[in-house]
Structures are given as structure tokens and as C-alpha cells.
Amino acid sequence: MANTHFLEDILHLGAGAVKTLAASRHEVKARARQKAGALVRGLDLVERAEFDAAFAMIATARQAQEDLAARLARIEAHLELKEIPPSKPASKGKSRVKTSRRRLPNVKEKRALKG
Q1: At residue 76, what are phi and psi to the nearest 5 degrees?
Q2: Is this prediction's pTM over 0.90?
Q3: Domain-embedded: residue 111
Q4: 3-state DSSP helix/strand/coil % of the chain, to nearest 5
Q5: What's the pLDDT tens digit per position in 2-24?
Q6: What are phi and psi of 85, to 5 degrees?
Q7: 32 and 68 inside one domain
Q8: CA-to-CA distance for 77 and 83, rounded, in angstroms?
Q9: Mean pLDDT score of the chain, rounded to an integer?
Q10: What is the pLDDT of residue 23?
Q11: What's the CA gap between 97 and 74, in Å, rounded?
């Protein structure tokens, strides 16, 4: 009889430990979800709808650029323009533009005049 009470107590204690572990597992999972959610919100990610809208704008801009390039090619062909050679880079000599120096008013002088 004493052995059966002892075994029942051990089984009861084990069942309680299993329930406690299961509850703590759910609590740890919930906290991990909260932390992960806070981390994702901190990354400043865009939503799918915003991404799709930006992607559509980019596609429209790309198409407009291609249309303008084709139009420019047709205009150049119509005007029979040839490629313009690239301009020569500026020489590295001392061909600087000279500017005149002006004397800027002194702040202390202005204060003395006002006072």
C-alpha cells in the first residue's frame, strides 16, 4: 500500500512537471514571436503592396525611357545627324578664371556701428 501511494505521488509529480514544461514552452514561443516581430518592425521593411507599386513605377519609367530613346533615334535619322565627337577635356595648365576679391564686412565693426 505504501508503494502504491509512493508511485501515485511520483506519477502525480511527473504529470505536474510535464504540464509546467508545456506551459513554459508556450510562453517561450510567445515571447520569441514578440521579439521577432519587434526585430522585423525595426528593420523598416516595406510591405508587398508598396514593393509592387514601386516595381510598377520603375517598369513604367523604363518603358518611357525606351520610347524616348527610339524617338530620339528617329529624330536624329530624320535630321541626318551624325554622332558628335566628345569634347576635349580642359587642359591641366594654369587656365583658371580670375575672380576679384571683395572685402566682407566684419561682424565686430557692424556691432560697433549699431551700439
Answers
A1: -65, -40
A2: no
A3: no
A4: 70, 0, 30
A5: 677 878 888 888 888 888 888 88
A6: -65, 150
A7: no
A8: 11
A9: 80
A10: 85
A11: 40
